[in-house]
Structure formats: C-alpha cells, structure tokens
C-alpha cells in the first residue's frame, strides 16, 4: 500500500476543487452563449476563448510567520510577503542584505520608535423592543475586531535612515495594490501581512491587510539626500507615518476557533494570531 501523504492529499483535493469550479463556469457560460444572436455569440465566444477558458485559480498571498522573530524583539512590525521583496528599493527591509548592519529587520517594516497603537473590539447587538415594555432585549448578531491604527515617528539622521524611510513608503504603496495587468499571479488582491508587537499576549502574528496609510512631508523640515538605484531622493528628517490595518482571518481558521481554548490562552502563539 502506498504511504499516505497529507500534503499530497490536500493538494489533490485543492486541484480537484479548482477543476470542478472551472468546469461549472465553462458549462454555464456555454449555455448562456447559445441563447445569443450570431453577433453576440461571436463576441462572447471570443471573450470566452481568450479570457475565461485559460484563466487559472490562484491562492491569495499570505505572509508566513516571522522566522527571525524572537522574544526579546517586542518592537511593532508588519511582515512583508516574500513575493514583494524584489529589487533594491525594499533592500533595507530584507532579512539579510549584506550591505549594513542597519539593514536587517527580518523581512519586516519595523517602527523605529514606539508608535501609538489604537485597536478596539465590538460585539454587535440588535435591539428588540416589544410594544409596552420599558427595556429593550438585546439580540446578539456578531463580533468583530475593528481596524487597527498605528502612528509612528520616523527620524532620518543619515543616508541609511533615509533609505529605510523610502523602503517603508514603497512597501506601503505596494501592499495596497492588487496584482493587475501583467502581474504574477494575475488577479490576486493585495497580500495579507502579519502584525506583531509588545509580546505574544498583545499583538501576536495577526493576519492583516493594509487598508490605508498616510505620511507627511513638512514644509518647515530639513531634507536629507539619499541615493536609491542610482537616483537621488530627498527625505524629511522628521516624518510621521500612520497605517490602518484590518484583521483578515481565513474562513477555515475561524471554523477551528474555540472560545474555551481562547479564554484559557490556548490561541497565543498560534498560526492565526486570534485577538
């Protein structure tokens, strides 16, 4: 008997599911095309042959856990998926660049100074108030983790600091865009990152998507020169970056959630970082 391999089995199930979805979409499109007129059929068939039939299903890009993370490093950081770590612009955020000891943040955007972090949790209830009653009944609907807002100061005292600021800016710009046009994998949404900081019981490996970020370039600030990819840039010596993150838990991970285990602290150091 062949040896059971869980990874191969999971991959086979995923491939079968993808083929089933593609086949269903193909059949539905074919039935719809047959009901059109000659011109509509020709146009729809062209789109079907060139766009739909050859399209592949790809998984969302999710940043893995931070392998370089350790208990002594409690700085607030946002991990960067490896698919984005290309080119020299993001060099200061890579785990090993071989250029300077200042450039080794472990594939993360690390806030250099303690930032201000705002997060909240909400339990939603619908009020039911029958006629001639003094008090409403609260019917539970759902719970949610609201957006997390991080505001941090960046001080640039030398060229390395300026390059790091540019790398952070470029990462945030990139992480808020989808894989469009000639991207690979085409059609994927912006990647899911991981948020860590202040220890395992505070912000621990939380899957997040970046929904918004802002920064300022003050008019009354000095600017420092740095060269990236042979091009001169000028960066303010003091700047504030605010990042808004939204927790993004996978459906299968939520299905395995246990409030009893959560209350006992069992989800601490878990894969999904439930908070």
List the keywords.
275 residues, alpha+beta, 2 domains, 7-stranded antiparallel beta sheet, two-stranded antiparallel sheet
Can you walk through the features of this model?
By secondary structure, the protein is α+β, with helices and mostly antiparallel strands. It has two domains: 6-52; 77-263, no CATH class. The protein is 26% helix and 27% strand. The chain contains five helices and eleven strands; from the N terminus they run H-H-E-E-E-E-E-E-H-E-E-E-E-E-H-H. The chain has helices at residues 6-34, 38-52, 159-175, 251-255, 259-263; strands spanning 77-79, 108-110, 116-118, 121-128, 137-145, 148-155, 193-197, 203-215, 223-228, 231-236, 238-247. The strands form three sheets. The chain has a seven-stranded antiparallel beta sheet, covered by helices on one side. Helix 1 runs antiparallel to helix 2 (38-52). The model has no long low-confidence stretch (mean pLDDT 81).
Helices and strands in order:
Blueprint (H helix, E strand, L loop, with lengths): L5 H29 L3 H15 L24 E3 L28 E3 L5 E3 L2 E8 L8 E9 L2 E8 L3 H17 L17 E5 L5 E13 L7 E6 L2 E6 L1 E10 L3 H5 L3 H5 L12
Helix pairs in contact: 1-2
Q: Give the SSE order as H and E letters.
A: HHEEEEEEHEEEEEHH
Q: Residue-averaged pLDDT, rounded? A: 81
Distance between the termini: 44 Å
Largest sheet: 7 strands, antiparallel
**Molecular shape:** extended
Share of β-strand residues: 25-35%
Count of helical regions: 5
Residue stretches low in confidence (pLDDT < 50, at least 5 long) are: none
Let me know the number of strands.
11
- Which percent range fits the helix content? 25-40%
Over all CA atoms, what is the radius of gyration?
A: 24 Å
The domain tally reads 2
Strand order of the largest sheet: 2-1-7-8-11-6-3
């Amino acid at each position: 008997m062949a040896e059971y391999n869980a990874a191969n089995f999971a991959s086979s199930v995923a491939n079968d599911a993808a083929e089933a979805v593609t086949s269903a979409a193909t059949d539905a499109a074919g039935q719809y095309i047959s009901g059109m007129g000659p011109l509509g059929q020709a146009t729809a068939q062209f789109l079907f042959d060139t766009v739909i039939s050859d399209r592949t299903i790809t998984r969302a890009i999710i940043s893995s856990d931070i392998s370089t993370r350790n208990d002594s490093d409690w700085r607030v950081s946002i991990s960067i998926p490896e698919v984005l770590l290309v080119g020299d612009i993001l060099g200061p955020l890579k785990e090993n660049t071989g250029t300077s000891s200042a450039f080794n943040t472990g594939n993360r955007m690390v806030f250099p100074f303690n930032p201000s972090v705002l997060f909240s949790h909400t339990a939603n209830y619908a009020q039911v108030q029958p006629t001639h009653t003094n008090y409403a009944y609260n019917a539970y609907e759902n719970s949610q983790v609201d957006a997390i807002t991080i505001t941090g100061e960046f001080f640039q005292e030398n060229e390395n600091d300026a390059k790091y600021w540019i790398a952070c800016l470029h990462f945030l710009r990139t992480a808020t865009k989808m894989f469009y046009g000639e991207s690979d994998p085409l059609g994927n949404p912006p990647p899911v990152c991981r948020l860590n900081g202040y220890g395992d019981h505070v912000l621990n490996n939380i899957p997040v998507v970046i929904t918004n970020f802002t920064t300022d370039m003050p008019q009354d600030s000095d600017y420092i020169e740095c060269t990236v990819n042979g091009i001169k840039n000028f960066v303010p010596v003091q700047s504030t970056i605010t990042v808004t993150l939204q927790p993004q838990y996978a459906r299968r991970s939520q299905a395995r959630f246990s409030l009893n285990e959560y209350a006992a602290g069992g989800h601490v150091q878990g894969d999904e970082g439930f908070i």
